[in-house]
UniProtKB/TrEMBL annotation:
Residues 4-181 form the Formyl transferase N-terminal domain. This is Phosphoribosylglycinamide formyltransferase. The record marks 144 as: Raises pKa of active site His. Belongs to the GART family. Catalyzes the transfer of a formyl group from 10-formyltetrahydrofolate to 5-phospho-ribosyl-glycinamide (GAR), producing 5-phospho-ribosyl-N-formylglycinamide (FGAR) and tetrahydrofolate. The keyword Kinase does not apply. (6R)-10-formyltetrahydrofolate binds at residues 64, 89-92, 106.
Length: 197
C-alpha cells in the first residue's frame, strides 16, 4: 500500500479525486496527510475524510529555504512513499527536491514543455493555440521542467475563457493523477528510472 502526502494551495480537486479513488478497498494507495502553504479551502477534505493535515504558511518565514525546511520536516513525519504537489502554487527549494525526489510529483494544466509556470492556462489562450493539455511530472529544480510521467491533449475551443478551459483540463489532470498513482503502486511506472532518463 502506497502512502501519500498531498500538498495543496487551493480547493484540492485533484486531492478529492485521490480520496474518492482510495475509498475503493482495491485501490493500492492511501492519503496519510494533507499539507498546505496557506489556509486552503481544500483542507476541508482532510476534515471530511478524517485525515491529518498541516499548514506551513510561507509568510511565517524569512526566506524560501527556511520555509522549505519546515515543510520538509512536516512531510517526513508521515514517512510517505510519494509526495504529490496538487495545485500547490509555490516552488519548493532544492533541499526539499533533493530529499524527496524522484518520489515528488506535480500536476500541471498544460502539455509540457509548453506553457510552464503558474499561468499555463492563461498563457495557452494568449498564444492562440488550438490545443493545450494536462501533464504529470517528476519535480526537479526547474519550473515544470522535470521528467514527464504522463500527459494528454485538451482542445482549446472558440470562445474559451481561462475558467472554461481550466474546467475542461481539471478532469484530465485528475484522471492522469489517479492512474499514475495506481501504476506507481503496481510497479508499471518506475520513478527512479524516469528521473535517470
Amino acid at each position: 500500500m502506497l502512502s501519500l502526502v498531498v500538498l495543496i494551495s487551493g480547493g484540492g480537486s485533484n486531492l478529492r479525486a485521490l480520496l474518492e479513488a482510495s475509498e475503493d478497498a482495491e485501490f493500492p494507495a492511501r492519503v496519510v496527510a494533507i499539507g498546505a502553504d496557506r489556509d486552503a479551502d481544500g483542507l476541508a477534505w482532510a476534515e471530511e475524510y478524517g485525515i491529518p493535515s498541516f499548514t506551513v504558511p510561507f509568510s511565517s518565514f524569512d526566506n524560501r529555504e527556511e520555509w522549505g525546511d519546515a515543510l520538509l520536516e512536516q512531510i517526513l513525519q508521515w514517512g510517505p512513499d510519494l509526495v504529490i504537489l496538487s495545485g500547490f502554487m509555490r516552488l519548493v527549494p532544492p533541499r526539499v527536491v533533493a530529499a524527496l525526489s524522484p518520489r515528488l510529483i506535480n500536476t500541471h494544466p498544460a502539455y509540457l514543455p509548453e506553457f510552464p509556470g503558474a499561468h499555463g492556462v492563461r498563457d495557452a489562450l494568449a498564444a492562440g493555440v488550438t490545443e493545450t493539455g494536462a501533464s504529470l511530472i517528476v519535480v526537479d529544480n526547474g519550473v515544470d521542467a522535470g521528467p514527464i510521467i504522463s500527459q494528454e491533449r485538451v482542445a482549446v475551443l472558440p470562445g474559451d475563457t481561462e475558467a472554461s478551459l481550466h474546467d475542461r483540463i481539471k478532469p484530465v489532470e485528475r484522471r492522469l493523477l489517479v492512474q499514475a498513482v495506481l501504476d506507481i503502486a503496481n510497479g508499471y511506472i518506475d520513478l527512479k528510472e524516469l528521473a535517470r532518463a
